[in-house]
Design a protein that fits this description.
The chain is an all-alpha fold and about 130 residues long. It has helices at about 1-15, 15-70, 75-85, 110-125. The longest helix is centred in the middle third of the chain and has 56 residues, at about 15-70.
Length: about 130
């Protein structure tokens, strides 16, 4: 009886059907492993990209915090009020200097048209 069982097991393990079955199972395992490897690499790439985004956003957040701290100072508020709204302190006097126009530098169109051809002549031939 034992010999028959041993013979049956030997025949089963040495048969080509078992070899084919094991080969098919092995191929399916390889395909599943390949798919999982591709997913793993894709997720790892996404994680790297997100980590880069985190670093960039943290840097931008730091810059914005610095700007906010600067904007909360009295000096900055006063400067912006002066520049944007033209405000001044109550005890302060503002002097506005308007430059005088040089009468010699202003040339009307008629004079310019007369002078222009002469200037071109001088530019090319002198």
């Amino acid at each position: 009886m034992k010999d028959r069982k041993n013979n049956g097991l030997k025949m089963f393990f040495s048969s080509t059907n078992l070899t084919i079955l094991l080969a098919v199972i092995f191929i399916f395992c390889l395909i599943a492993l390949g798919k999982q490897t591709i997913k793993f690499l894709s997720i790892r790439s996404q994680i790297r990209d997100l980590e880069k985004n985190i670093v960039a956003l943290e840097e931008k957040n730091g810059q914005l915090n610095n700007l906010l701290m600067q904007a909360n100072t009295d000096f900055y508020k006063e400067r912006e009020a002066r520049l944007k709204f033209g405000l001044q302190r109550p005890d302060e006097k503002v002097a506005i200097i308007i430059p005088e126009k040089d009468k010699n530098s202003q040339i009307d169109k008629k004079q310019f048209q007369q002078i222009n051809p002469i200037n071109w002549w001088d530019y090319f031939f002198r």
